[in-house]
Design brief:
Layout: H1 13-24, E1 29-32, H2 34-40, E2 49-52, H3 56-62, E3 67-72, E4 77-82, E5 85-91, E6 93-96, E7 106-109, H4 113-118, E8 127-130, E9 134-137, H5 141-146, E10 149-150, H6 156-162, H7 165-177, E11 180-181, H8 183-191, H9 201-213, H10 217-223, H11 225-231, H12 252-262, H13 267-275, H14 280-283, E12 285-287, E13 290-292, H15 296-310, H16 315-326, H17 336-363, H18 368-390, H19 403-408, H20 414-429, H21 436-448
Parallel strand pairs: 2-5, 10-11
Antiparallel strand pairs: 1-2, 1-8, 3-4, 4-5, 6-7, 8-9, 12-13
Helix pairs in contact: 7-9, 7-10, 10-12, 12-13, 12-17, 13-16, 15-16, 17-18
The protein binds adenosine-5'-triphosphate (ATP) and magnesium ion.
């Protein structure tokens, strides 16, 4: 189903003012790209990109009363700050020479909007708008939005060869917007997928996260799996890898894709789901006709770290994701003691992330056995929420006793940490009440047994 009508493009007052100021100084100016596209389909717009006939030095002159950031003067981009928010104004331009398949060697400023729109990647991104002239759609972008089609402006082979990042941008928009990639565009990007090897890994990573996080990730990751494997070759082994397990209805890659699509839309969770079983094929063995994957979480964690380091993901994100992958199948039974132990080991965020991953994993197994397991996991989640809401003790910092108290009782060195751990275990088990006098008494008794 496509769109039967479009929303009006309503510009914020700052954007209207910028366009009017440029116009009053004799220049043309339009909103272009994502802002027009997303306004038309009723999505929230965060960034307004403006394209103008004014040269960078002219933009600077026109806005000399405002704060200006010369973002990329060589490429014709100046950012003007209005009300604390930046608006990028880019001079009409074409791009020439793509010797590194990514950044144009040279940009050439041009005088017409039509030439500027021609260099843009997809028809849906090549629509311009201002209040005076309305929508300017020279490449059939409106009709493509209506029919939910993603198509390059001009010959797809040429456009993807000029800048291979567009291959991933195509999958990204397809996934985020739920648009189908037009046949020729799809054919060309698949043929040219190996050009992606020349693209900077940071850009690859940023697009990849958007691809796996889009609402149509399941379709895109399935339809374009071979493009995905050029940037994450580690996943190729999972493709059509039959699990021969009574827990699983799908092959490993299909399972991964379904889990990724299902999990909450938070980057660390999406990435963890996408890589959580990457190590499965290496650990596969069959016993009595049933497939097993002992140690696969550990293996997957090692591979996950390698993949994310190669893609230069931020270190903190790598640590969080590796942790989730490593522990995604740790048993957590629905009883207070186990839950508190796990809460203590992982901290709240990671604990609930593991629960989310377990639920998405279970959903993507597609068997009754897995559904029964998910019921248990939901119970764990509920109990953990209750533990936290009650303020039950499960961390050392919750204990009404600390290291200084133990020093005062004559404990020394390592024995302090060990004693605190045991006391906490007793409190968590319900053998001790978390009251200072009681804990001091218990510590006194323990020291005698040291
Ligand atoms: P979003 O901001 O939602 O990511 P967007 O369409 O605004 O989407 P940007 O990366 O902000 O994407 O780029 C703004 C516009 O610049 C695009 O809509 C497109 O017209 C053009 N553009 C960006 N990158 C490329 C590229 N690699 N090749 C050609 N045109 C591009
Ligand atoms: Mg944008």
């Amino acid at each position: 189903m496509g769109y039967s009508s479009f929303n009006d493009v309503v510009l914020p007052v700052e954007v209207k003012n910028i366009i009017n100021t440029l116009k009053n100084n004799g220049f043309k100016a339009y909103v272009v790209g994502g802002a027009v596209r997303d306004s038309l389909i009723g999505k929230t717009v965060y960034d307004y990109d403006i394209t103008s006939s004014a040269r960078p030095e002219e933009i600077i002159e026109v806005f000399k009363g405002d704060t200006i950031i010369p973002t990329g003067l060589k490429h014709g981009t100046v950012t003007v700050l209005k009300g604390g928010k930046g608006y990028e104004i880019t001079t009409f331009r074409t791009e020439k020479g793509y010797s590194d398949l990514r950044r144009p060697d040279e940009v050439e400023f041009v005088s017409t909007l039509s030439e500027d729109l021609k260099r843009r990647d997809f028809t849906i991104n090549a629509i311009a708008y201002n209040d005076e002239e309305g929508i300017i759609d020279l490449y059939g972008g409106l009709s493509d939005i209506k029919n939910k089609i993603l198509r390059t402006v001009g010959d797809p082979k040429e456009r993807f060869s000029e800048d291979a990042l567009r291959i991933l941008r195509a999958l990204r928009f397809s996934s985020e917007l739920g648009f189908f990639v037009e046949e020729n565009t799809a054919k060309s990007l698949t043929e040219l997928k190996n050009l992606l090897k020349s693209i900077s890994v940071e850009r690859v990573f940023s697009e990849l996260v958007k691809i796996i996080s889009g609402k149509d990730a399941e379709r895109v990751l399935t339809e374009f799996s071979n493009v995905i494997f050029t940037v994450v070759p580690e996943l190729e082994k999972c493709y059509k890898f039959e699990q021969r397990s009574s827990w699983h209805s799908f092959d490993v890659y299909t399972h991964i894709v379904k889990a990724t699509a299902k999990i909450d839309n938070i980057p660390r969770l999406k990435i963890a789901a996408f890589l959580h079983d990457v190590g499965k094929p290496e650990t596969f063995f069959v016993k009595n006709g049933e497939g097993h994957f002992y140690g696969h979480a550990e293996k997957s964690a090692i591979t996950t770290e390698r993949v994310l380091k190669r893609l230069k993901a931020p270190n903190r994100l790598i640590n969080e994701v590796v942790m989730l992958v490593k522990y995604h199948d740790i048993p957590i039974t629905p009883d207070d003691f186990t839950i508190k132990k796990r809460l203590r080991k992982f901290g709240e965020q990671t604990f609930f992330d593991i629960i989310s991953l377990k639920l998405a994993d279970g959903y993507a197994q597609g068997t009754d056995k897995a559904v029964a397991e998910m019921q248990k996991t939901l119970k764990v989640k509920k109990l953990a929420e209750e533990i936290i809401a009650r303020g039950d003790c499960y961390r050392l910092s919750d204990l009404k006793l600390n290291g200084d108290d133990l020093l005062g009782l004559g404990y020394e060195g390592k024995s302090i940490g060990m004693a605190l751990d045991r006391i906490l275990d007793d409190v968590v088990c319900g053998n001790l009440i978390n009251e200072r006098e009681i804990l001091l008494e218990s510590a006194k008794k323990r020291i005698k047994n040291l």
